[in-house]
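Quick one: co-fold with pyridoxal-5'-phosphate.
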Amino acid sequence: MAIGGSDPGGGAGIQQDIRTVTVLGGYGSGIPTALTVQNSLGVEDVSPVDSLYLERQLENCLSDIQFDAIKIGMILTKENVEAISKVLTRYAQGIPVVLDPVLSSKNEKALLKEEALKVFFDKILPVVTVITPNIPEAKRLLGDEDDQTIDQEELGKRLFKLIDGLTQRDIAVIIKGGHGTEGEKVKDVLVDRDGKVAIYGQRIATTHSHGTGCAYASSLATFLGAHVSLRDAMRLAREFIEISLRESSSLGAGIGPVNTLTILKR
Ligand code: PLP
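Sure, here it is.
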């Protein structure tokens, strides 16, 4: 089950999530938290789904269908953070829940409001198994946005410690390295109770990367739902994103989407 924003252009959000799950051989469902007005040039506007309606969609589906994994992306409002928290507390026990903490778009439109960020730790993290921020998102969650010196391992350790302290729960932290700029390799760092691991992939030079974060988190959720270990799921998700970025191309006048469909050719 993918819970997140709708991208009418299809490159990100629940449209990308469902495509990712589908090409990996799974069955994807999509629960919209918000509508967006966007195309390849960026996100122009956002409008939340009514929180009671979101709650009813979640409750209705989860009380009927047995999902193997849940992925949460863009949430936008405090009310929707609370609605997801309420329903998942009841239904997501024992199911892997991947949270991609979507904070803003590339053109800097807020996709999680400030007031929602305040309840994020309290309400959403207790229902989550693994959180997948990129480097800027991790810094923002830690309140260390301006610290240029802090490396990925340190970011992961600090975020794991902060979450552990706040929730007393064992939530794995993956700091994705795609937003770093150094070297030919991309490094993803996992920090969990068992320590830390770095997974390396090839950095792919392309501007067409819309939907990368969504595809990464939903592929990770798909692998976890198929009972792959977290470390192996991370390797597979990085490989999936590498192929999808290699084959990405323009669609519209701006930033094109990752081409997750290419996996079907293999
Ligand atoms: N729209 C939705 C629904 C998203 O979930 C996201 C990112 O996760 C975006 C837009 C932003 O995409 P980008 O980072 O390519 O601007």
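If it helps, The pocket of pyridoxal-5'-phosphate is lined by residues 4-5, 7, 12-13, 36, 38, 43, 73-74, 102, 105-106, 111, 210, 213-214 (CB under 6 Å).
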